[in-house]
Write a structure and sequence with these properties.
globular; alpha/beta; eight-stranded parallel beta barrel; TIM Barrel; single chain
Length: 343
């Protein structure tokens, strides 16, 4: 699969853009573990042109994580064009436009998936951004606004004519948010359209290597994007790559390696921000990591981790879990009580 001149090889697996998740550290870890391409957290065009520090920090790209896309969103043509030009200055491999975010603070204001209610404006923004930059432009969107307006097949053609180089389709409508099941049959209809010549990337409910293989074999997409299943579990890309190559996870990552990756995420989050806010940022990963599922006193352990607000306290809990799983997986262990200064 190619996005313009960027060759991602056969059956590329990509890390989806996720706010407060796909920072530079997490992208690099996922890349090292097998992701073929990564996407930034989404970047507000309005905040970027106002030079908001928290937004401009999202533009940092490490050479080792490439190819990387920076995703932007907004609801007006001129700010989106200006933001795209600013993004191009940091030389991402791709500029992606977010027409899929369903959350109220974005879609409710007409941006993200809100654009699915104003297709002329969506196409005007897309065409203007494509014309304003030399970097390949792609789009990520959904099937439509609701069940009665699944317009993605014809919309894909219209976006192609605006000049985009690839299209990612999340198999839900905006009204579904993240509920129900992703409709991969509809994604397949987009791919089967003989007039569509750009790559189609499928997204939604790819939670296991087996579902990844099915997405390629049954629905014929050019690439697959993995989102929520990677949170707290970046090694899913290793397992997916192994399954694509060998039909199974031939060389699973050791428990020790997974815990080392988790500690690295914590260290790098703290180093990027500070101890307190860095731990707050990483809690989303800790809360859903498969490493802690099924252990004795799981609920108490999870609460203790999410209350810990120092690195030493958090690492102490993680160390105890690793020791228990490595040495005596059937036994319980005492979870230390943690005092939180944030209560």
């Amino acid at each position: 699969m190619k996005i313009a001149d960027i060759d991602l090889g056969e059956h590329p697996v990509m890390l989806a853009p996720m706010e407060d998740v796909t920072d530079q550290s997490f992208r690099l870890i996922c890349k090292e573990l097998g992701a073929d391409m990564t996407y930034s957290e989404f970047v507000s065009a309005d905040a970027l042109i106002r030079n908001i520090a928290a937004t401009t920090r999202k533009l940092h790209i490490e050479p080792a994580e490439r190819p990387t896309a920076i995703q932007i969103y907004g609801r007006e043509v001129e700010p989106m064009v200006e933001a795209a030009k600013m993004v191009e200055e940091v030389h991402p491999d791709v500029i992606d436009i977010n027409f899929g975010c369903p959350v109220k603070k974005v879609a409710g204001k007409g941006a993200g998936a809100g654009m699915l209610r104003d297709i002329p404006r969506m196409l005007a923004i897309t065409r203007a951004v494509v014309d304003a930059v030399k970097t390949p432009v792609t789009v990520k969107t959904r099937l439509g606004w609701d069940h009665e307006s699944k317009i993605i097949v014809e919309l894909a053609e219209q976006l192609q004519y605006c000049g985009i180089k690839a299209l990612t389709v999340h198999g839900r409508t905006r009204s579904q948010m993240y509920t129900g099941e992703a409709d991969w049959e509809m994604i397949a209809r987009v791919k089967e359209n003989p007039r569509l010549r750009i790559p189609v990337i499928g997204n939604g409910d790819i939670t296991t290597p087996e579902r990844l293989v099915e997405a390629f074999a049954r629905y014929g997409v050019d690439g697959v994007m993995v989102g929520r299943a990677a949170i707290g579990n970046p090694w899913i890309f290793h397992d997916m790559r192994q399954t694509l190559l060998h039909g199974m996870v031939k060389e699973p990552l050791s428990l020790q390696r997974k815990f080392a990756i988790l500690r690295r995420q914590i260290d790098e989050s703290i180093g990027r921000i500070d101890e307190y806010r860095g731990i707050l940022h990483i809690r989303r990963h800790l809360a859903v990591s498969q490493l802690f599922k099924g252990i004795p006193f799981f609920r108490e352990t999870r609460i203790a981790m999410l209350r810990a607000d120092t690195k030493d306290a958090l690492f102490g809990i993680i160390d105890r879990v690793e020791e228990m799983l490595a040495g005596h997986p059937g036994e319980s262990f005492p979870v230390p009580e943690t005092e939180s200064t944030s209560d």
